[in-house]
Design brief:
Layout lengths: L1 E6 L4 E8 L2 E9 L11 H23 L6 E9 L3 H18 L3 E5 H7 L18 E6 L4 E8 L2 E7 L5 H11 L6 H9 L24 H13 L16 H30 L3 E5 L6 H14 L2 E3 L11 H12 L17
Parallel strand pairs: 1-4, 4-5, 6-9, 9-10
Antiparallel strand pairs: 1-2, 2-3, 6-7, 7-8
Helix pairs in contact: 1-2, 3-9, 4-5, 4-6, 5-7, 7-8
Bound molecules: 5'-O-[(R)-(carboxyoxy)(hydroxy)phosphoryl]adenosine and zinc ion (ZN).
Length: 347
Amino acid sequence: MNILGIESSCDETSAAVIADGVLRSNIISSQFIHRYYGGIVPELASRAHQKLIVPVVDQALAVAGISRADIAAVAVTSGPGLIGALLVGVNFAKALAYGLNIPIIGVNHLEAHIYSNFIREPDGGVPQSLGYPFLCLIVSGGHTQLVLVHEPLNHELLGSTVDDAAGEAFDKVGKMLGLGFPGGPVIDRLAATGDPEYVKFPRSFLDDSGFDFSFSGIKTSMLYWLRDRKLLGHSNDITKPVIEPKMLADLCASFQKSVVDVLTNKMLLAVKRFGVRDIAIAGGVSANSELRRRMAELAAANGLRLSIPKFDYCTDNAAMIAQLGWMKLEHGIHSSIELDAEASLAL
Ligand code: KG4
Ligand code: ZN
């Protein structure tokens, strides 16, 4: 049975095919136009999705070696995300489902990030075993959430960010440092040679016994640190850095460490509170090398099993949408043709 997954919630147009639970294709077209603006411009994102959706879907089908007539169901991100961007994917999926007379499955983008840990590849790329219940930290550009997954498709939200998402903090700090957009991957790369103890940025744990996060304080500390040394206000051009390379690497490493300290601390707190043996991370920031390393350390020190998605499935992709669509269909869940996009759809 072939499930087509479609993702268009932000700035990636993506389509994927899962056949009988195994991933057959995953095409991702990233929109680079936003780099000129230092952030995602919603209207440009919608227009790019409109142009790309048909070729991206056609390519996903071609790579999987199937035609439209072979699709048994279509899964699509219905939220959360940019409303115009979501509408492109949802309306395309509805038209396809109606035309082919097949079920449509609306998928929550955040829930799909969790199940990116279960994507199975054809060449033996079986996901690390992850048992239920498990804790999943979803860290992306728009969200930071800690979730307790009791059983397939049954989860409990433990905490969220009260201000910036972790990825948003990476991107805003990247902008301050003149590293372009998105800053996360660049900070990760530069931090590799930096001293994480160079600046001791504040760690906000909010309530010591709770699972909410806050990252705006770390970001503001960086702003003040740069402003006090007259290192702010330069061009957002990575080819013309005003901060000398050693200091830049040290600042990246210090900032990254403060964010990762908070994320790992909250995960450990939840492990102790709920007594789980399995943990996972997901979302764009789960591609971060320091977060991956520290989560592996935490797992080893506490006898836990850790699952981290392959890099391709950390940032936005349709493979995770098809994966959750497949799991929902197996549980007899699908949506009606009235499915609508919801910008603020909750987890
Ligand atoms: O999950 P995602 O692709 O989109 C959303 O659903 O938001 O996440 C994008 C976020 C961006 O903020 C980007 O800077 C961040 O993930 N990101 C990283 C890394 N790769 C992507 N942050 C830190 N280190 C990375 N290696
Ligand atoms: Zn995402």
